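Severity: low
Component: inverse-folding endpoint
Summary: output formatting inconsistent between runs
Steps to reproduce: submit the following C-alpha cells with default settings.
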C-alpha cells in the first residue's frame, strides 16, 4: 500500500471513531426518526458503519472545511468553528458562528440529484432551528438569530444557500420533543414505529443502492406492523377485499409494465427526431416548417416555471404567519384524496 493510500485509510478509520457521548441526544439528529434517536441513547445494537459510510461522512467534512476556510480568510478572527451547544438533553456542534452578525452557518454536502431535487431537507432546517434555540450565553440570551444552511453539490461544487430565521414556536417544539424523548429513554421506552419498512427514513436510496437504517432489525421483522393481516384481529371482509385488490392491482401493474416496455423504444425515437429537428430549425432560424403534403411541425419553447417551496420557507422562518395571512386571498385549495399503498405478501 502506498504512503498516500495508508494515510487516507487511517483517516477513514478515524472518521468512524465515535465522537459523541452515546448516552446523549445529538442536536444534529433533531428532525430524524425519534425511535432511532432513543434506541441510540439506550445503546441498542446497530449495524456498524461501513467504509462507504466513512467516505460519506468525510465528504461532509471536506465541504464544511471548504466553506469555513473562506470565512476565515475573509474575516480572520471574526468567526468560530465547531462551536459546542450544550443543552440538558445533549450536545451539538455548530459548523461556524459569526458573532458580529449573530449568524450560524451549517454546511451540508449532497450529490447532484439531491442538489437539484431534494433540498432543503426538513431535518436540516430542524437541526439549524435547534442550534438557534439552544445556543445561548450565560445570561440565557440567544447568540444567533439567523442562519445560512449551505448545500454543496459534491459532483460540481455548485452551492445553494437557504436563509433560516429563528422561529420560537419551532424552537420550543424541538425542546418539548427532546424533553419527552429523554423521559422515554429514562423509562427504557421506545417511540412506536410509524414508518414503512421499505420507505424513508427506514431505507435510503443512494447511488450505491438501497441502504437500511442501522436499527432496522429492531423495528421491522417478518411480520409487518402495518399489514392488517398481522394486526391480530383479521376481519373477513377486509381479507377478501385485500385478496381481490392484490389480484386486480397485480394484473394492472403487469399490463402497465408491458405497455411501458412496448412504447419506450418509440418514445426514445421521438425524442431523437425532435433533437434532430431542433438542430435543423436552429440552422434555418425558423420555428415551423410545412412539408409539400401539408404536414406542419411547429416548435414552441416553453420556459421553465419558477415555483416556491413555501413549506420549507415556513420551517426556515423566512415565510412568516403575517406573510401567509397576506397571501391567503391568492391561495388555491386542491381537493384531498386517499392514497392506497399495497405492499408485502405474495403477488
Ligand atoms: S428502521 Fe425506521 S422506524 Fe426504525 S429506527 Fe430506523 S428509521 Fe426509525
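Observed output (run 2 of 3):
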Amino acid at each position: 500500500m502506498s504512503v498516500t493510500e495508508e494515510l487516507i485509510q487511517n483517516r477513514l478509520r478515524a472518521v468512524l471513531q465515535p465522537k459523541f457521548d452515546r448516552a446523549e441526544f445529538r442536536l444534529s439528529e433533531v428532525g430524524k426518526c425519534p425511535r432511532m434517536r432513543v434506541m441510540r441513547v439506550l445503546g441498542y445494537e446497530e449495524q456498524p458503519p461501513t467504509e462507504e459510510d466513512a467516505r460519506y461522512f468525510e465528504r461532509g467534512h471536506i465541504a464544511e472545511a471548504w466553506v469555513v476556510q473562506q470565512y476565515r480568510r475573509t474575516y480572520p478572527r471574526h468567526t468560530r468553528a465547531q462551536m459546542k451547544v450544550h443543552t440538558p438533553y445533549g450536545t451539538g456542534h455548530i459548523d461556524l458562528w459569526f458573532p458580529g452578525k449573530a449568524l450560524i452557518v451549517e454546511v451540508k454536502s449532497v450529490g447532484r440529484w439531491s442538489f437539484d431535487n431534494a433540498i432543503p431537507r426538513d431535518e436540516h432546517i430542524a437541526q439549524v432551528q435547534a442550534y438557534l434555540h439552544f445556543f445561548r450565553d450565560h445570561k440565557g440570551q440567544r447568540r444567533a438569530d439567523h442562519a445560512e444552511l449551505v448545500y454543496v453539490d459534491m459532483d460540481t461544487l455548485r452551492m445553494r444557500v437557504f436563509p433560516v430565521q429563528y422561529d420560537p414556536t419551532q424552537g420550543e417544539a424541538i425542546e418539548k420533543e427532546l424533553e419527552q424523548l429523554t423521559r422515554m429513554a429514562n423509562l427504557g421506552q421506545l417511540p412506536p414505529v410509524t414508518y414503512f419498512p421499505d420507505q424513508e427514513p427506514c431505507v435510503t436510496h443512494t447511488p450505491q443502492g438501497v441502504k437500511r437504517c442501522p436499527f432496522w432489525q429492531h423495528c421491522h421483522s417478518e411480520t409487518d406492523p402495518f399489514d392488517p393481516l398481522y394486526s391480530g384481529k383479521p376481519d373477513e371482509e377486509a381479507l377478501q377485499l385485500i385478496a381481490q385488490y392484490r389480484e386486480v392491482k397485480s394484473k394492472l401493474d403487469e399490463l402497465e409494465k408491458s405497455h411501458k416496455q412496448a412504447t419506450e423504444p418509440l418514445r426514445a425515437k421521438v425524442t431523437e427526431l425532435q433533437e434532430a429537428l431542433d438542430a435543423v430549425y436552429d440552422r434555418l432560424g425558423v420555428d415551423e416548417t410545412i412539408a409539400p403534403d401539408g404536414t406542419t411541425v411547429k416548435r414552441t419553447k416553453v420556459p421553465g416555471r419558477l415555483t416556491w417551496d413555501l413549506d420549507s420557507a415556513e420551517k426556515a422562518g423566512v415565510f412568516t404567519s403575517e406573510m401567509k395571512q397576506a397571501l391567503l386571498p391568492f391561495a388555491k385549495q386542491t381537493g384531498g384524496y386517499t392514497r392506497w399503498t399495497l405492499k408485502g405478501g405474495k403477488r
